[in-house]
Write a structure and sequence with these properties.
The N terminus is likely disordered. This protein is mainly beta and about 230 residues long. It has 1 helix and 16 strands. About 35% of the residues are buried. Strands 1, 3, 4, 6, 11, 12, 13, 14 and 16 form a 9-stranded antiparallel sheet that branches. Strands 2-5-15-7-8-9-10 form a 7-stranded antiparallel sheet, with no helix packed on it.
């Protein structure tokens, strides 16, 4: 909805203010183990879906978090998305419980965005804190890649603010997409570089869990999940 008043430059200012005011924000903090948004499983994987559970360690202090486990097929990838509008320009942030292991392979936990369930494709931004080559990284995954990741960006030890964590813990992960370009954030600090994500024009946002190499249990816990349409 907009109101056009012909006062020269002021008509533009009014329209801009109205469009900003009506931008949508979607949130889920899982208070006391109850979801505030509807969540759907990604139909091309193994139908694992995020659940809201009670958790006294919730970083926002409301005793509830969201959990996605890759349990239905005994491993492999799991993806769940919030049922909102499909978005193209947006800011997404969430606390993510990032696992840490001293083994060469381990769990992958993080966020997914521009999720296209019809054409079976998405991008994901995850923490992979294994004992061999730990990193934060971004990848494209789709039916056209046989659902294998096409890596687009890595941030290693020296590029991660505060370095690689020594033990599992909650961290705020975020992504901003504008006109097909994405910027990424770790604990509210911007990571270097931008990533071209224009292969998918618009989509949903959600949560990703996997175990490197498959056939390993993995889970991703999130809290204070916020999507702002921009």
């Amino acid at each position: 909805m907009s109101i056009l008043i012909k006062f020269g430059i002021f008509s533009f200012i009014l329209l801009f203010s109205l469009s900003t005011a009506f931008a949508e924000t979607y949130r889920d903090s899982f208070p006391q183990g109850k979801a505030q948004l509807k969540w759907n499983f990604f139909p091309h994987f193994f139908l694992d879906n995020l659940e809201a559970v009670k958790d006294s360690s919730a970083p926002d202090g409301d005793s509830g978090v969201g959990v996605l486990r890759n349990a239905n097929a005994g491993g492999f990838a799991a993806l769940s998305y919030a049922v909102t509008e499909e978005v193209s320009n947006f800011y997404l942030e969430s606390y993510v419980l990032c696992p840490v292991t001293d083994k060469e392979k381990g769990q992958l936990s993080g966020l997914a965005f521009l999720i296209d369930p019809v054409n079976s494709r998405f991008y994901r931004f995850i923490c992979d804190f294994n004992g061999k080559d730990p990193s934060l990284n971004v990848a494209y995954i789709g039916k056209d890649t046989r659902h294998f990741p096409v890596y687009l960006k890595f941030w290693k030890e020296r590029e991660i603010p505060g370095g690689v964590p020594k033990k599992a813990g909650w961290h705020k992960m975020a992504v901003r997409v504008r006109d097909g370009k994405a910027k990424f954030y770790w604990n509210e600090k911007e990571l270097s570089g931008t990533v071209d994500v224009s292969r998918i024009n618009r989509g949903f946002v959600g949560v990703y869990a996997n175990f490197v190499g498959g056939l390993g249990g993995a889970e991703t816990k999130i809290d204070s999940f916020i999507l702002k349409v921009e």
